[in-house]
């Protein structure tokens, strides 16, 4: 199968996959990115990055908050930390009172980088003015700094 | 733009680069002015830097909107040639648009940066 061919979804218009071809996933890419239908609903929206900058003392835990000014559709999580031990984090949608995990997730298991991003299969909508809480715990025994980045699109 | 419309896509890279000065906190502002002939379908972000201690914040000149709430670490924003960052849903920019990149180095060393917006010029 060529990557330029559309598979299934006969009722949908023909489009080549454009930006959702992941080199590291090759022909399995479609299992790691939002579906064609999900992507069509994002057309015309502006890419946006919500950045949580954290600076934490050894083993410190802090809660950070970002508030989208308009509806924000989360597509993926990116991040880094200065210390290799990394951080644990969880994300909470305060409007729906919904946590994204039952326990904090190690950053190595939660976020990607721009080179090897982690995308959600289905975009998740944060309504305008609903705070997104990100709780971050430093796993290093020394001070740590870095970012958790919520990548998505908004109107 | 109607996403169902049949388009001719011409691969195209908009490239900008420079050197951020050595002292930590040094800033460099780079801009890309899109050609006036065609819309540009921005699909991938690619970039290189000589030191990872660098942040970037992008502003769309047409609307004045900033594309992030705070500066991003460069490696959380740009991929590389072999592993580019895909926008998931491409963003179509109007002919003649300008994008501005505010770069700040925190490394304390010279930082040589190149940013590539990779995508397609659209022929209707």
Descriptive account of the structure:
The complex is a heterodimer of chains A (155) and B (124). By secondary structure, chain A is mainly beta. Chain A folds into two domains: 1-40, no CATH class; 45-154, Jelly Rolls (Sandwich), CATH 2.60.120.230. In chain A, 6% of the residues lie in helices and 42% in strands. Chain A is built from two helices and nine strands; from the N terminus they run αββββββαβββ. Chain A has helices at 36-40, 107-110, and strands spanning 46-56, 61-66, 72-81, 87-93, 98-99, 105-106, 118-126, 132-138, 144-154. Chain A is globular, with a radius of gyration of 17 Å. Chain B is mostly beta strands. Chain B has one domain (15-123): Jelly Rolls (Sandwich), CATH 2.60.120. Chain B has no helices and eight strands. The relative contact order of chain B is 0.42. The interface between A and B is large, with 40 and 33 residues.
Given helix and strand content, the structural type of chain A is: mainly beta
Just give the CATH class of chain B: Mainly Beta
Determine the oligomeric state from the structure: heterodimer
Principal-axes shape call of chain A: globular
Strand content of chain A: 35-45%
Radius of gyration of chain B using CA atoms only: 15 Å
Number of helices of chain B: 0
At CATH level 2, the architecture of the largest domain in chain A is Sandwich
CATH hierarchy class name of the largest domain in chain A: Mainly Beta
Coarse structural class of chain B: mainly beta
Shape of chain B: globular
Largest interface (CB within 8 Å) is between:
A-B, 40 and 33 residues
**Spatial arrangement of strands, main beta sheet of chain B:** 1-8-3-6
Report helical residue fraction of chain A: under 10%
| Poorly predicted residue ranges of chain B | none
Number of strands of chain A: 9
Q: How many distinct folded domains of chain B?
A: 1
> Considering DSSP H and I runs of 4 or more, what fraction of the residues of chain B is helical?
under 10%
Radius of gyration of chain A: 17 Å
Taking the alpha carbons of the first and last residues of chain B, their distance comes to 10 Å
């Amino acid at each position: 199968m060529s990557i330029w061919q559309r598979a299934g979804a006969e009722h949908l218009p023909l489009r080549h996959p454009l930006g959702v071809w992941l080199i590291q996933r090759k022909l399995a890419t479609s299992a790691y990115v939002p579906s064609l239908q999900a992507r069509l609903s994002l057309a015309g929206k502006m890419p946006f990055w919500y950045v949580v900058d954290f600076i934490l003392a050894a083993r410190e835990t802090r809660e950070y908050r970002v508030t989208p000014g308009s509806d924000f559709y989360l597509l993926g999580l990116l991040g880094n930390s200065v210390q290799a031990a990394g951080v644990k984090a969880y994300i909470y949608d305060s409007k729906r009172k919904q946590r994204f995990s039952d326990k904090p997730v190690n950053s190595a298991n939660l976020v990607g980088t721009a080179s090897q991003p982690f995308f959600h299969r289905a975009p998740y909508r944060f309504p305008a003015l609903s705070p997104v809480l990100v709780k971050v715990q430093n796993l290093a025994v020394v001070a740590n700094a870095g970012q958790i980045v919520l990548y998505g699109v908004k109107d | 733009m109607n996403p169902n419309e049949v388009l001719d896509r011409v691969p195209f890279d908009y490239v900008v680069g420079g050197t951020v000065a050595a002292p930590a906190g040094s800033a460099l502002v780079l801009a890309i002015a899109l050609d006036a002939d065609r819309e540009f379908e921005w699909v991938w972000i690619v970039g290189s830097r000589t030191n990872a201690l660098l942040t970037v914040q992008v502003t769309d000149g047409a609307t004045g909107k900033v594309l992030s709430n705070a500066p991003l670490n460069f490696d959380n924003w740009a991929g590389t040639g072999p592993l580019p960052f895909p926008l998931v849903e491409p963003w179509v920019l109007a002919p003649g648009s300008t994008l501005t990149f505010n770069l700040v180095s925190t490394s304390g060393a010279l930082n040589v940066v190149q940013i590539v917006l990779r995508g397609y010029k659209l022929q209707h």
